[in-house]
């Protein structure tokens, strides 16, 4: 694997670390099976790309993309909490609706950003290659997002969200507005996904309506791989594991697809994903079996 391919894998892994953090909030903390991710990821990219091409600053466009993702998550939570639609079905409905919404926002299947300013080329120092600077900037963004998430979920509201996911009935008995906590948790989750979509669009040179296909699978794979590498009940370590899982996942994907002796091609991406997730799920079981042996 060349240095360019290695840094490219790290770059994509860091972007999907934000997706994985969002998926961690919905699936692990809230126990909410959220498929909105497949729609809110391209939503973030679409909003960001359209705002940049309309003359907005890339920073403002990136923040706008995160807010758009938060609104998408909020609507999913509203369908579940207020209209009493089953959580999984509510997220599926929102995911389907967002496909049309994204096309409407972009005015077509894609919006290129080839000659437009982005967060990366505006902040890139002279003398540094873009493929080196992008991972460095993404590391800073991911660290800030992780630290903000760790802090938030140790506040009173954050603990209320965790209590809602752990035992909603007990949380209500303690005076927690569980419906409101679901709405807030889903908004934060999809805000991170929307932010990831905006960064992805800026690194890939544009937004596309199909860029969200399989996003939830990648997010779940990162969470599962991370928990296998660094199992912990502490939130700070759990979020770190998710970030590491996303980077390791993308690294192994890139390694498999760039290894000529294996013979894998780009169309084998889903196969490699399935194999990696299977291995990540089997490893904890093997550890438990080995620990029981005398």
TrEMBL record:
Alphabetized Pfam families for the sequence: BPD_transp_2
Coiled coil stretches, renumbered: none
Main localization, broad class: membrane
InterPro entries: ABC_transp_permease (IPR001851)
Membrane topology: Multi-pass membrane protein
CDD domains: TM_PBP1_branched-chain-AA_like (cd06574)
Domain of life: Bacteria
Keywords: Cell membrane, Membrane, Transmembrane, Transmembrane helix
Subcellular location(s) of the protein: Cell membrane
Transmembrane segments: 6-27, 63-81, 88-111, 131-154, 175-199, 211-230, 235-257, 269-286
Protein name in the entry: ABC transport system permease protein
Organism expressing this protein natively: Comamonas odontotermitis
Taxonomic lineage from the root: Bacteria, Pseudomonadati, Pseudomonadota, Betaproteobacteria, Burkholderiales
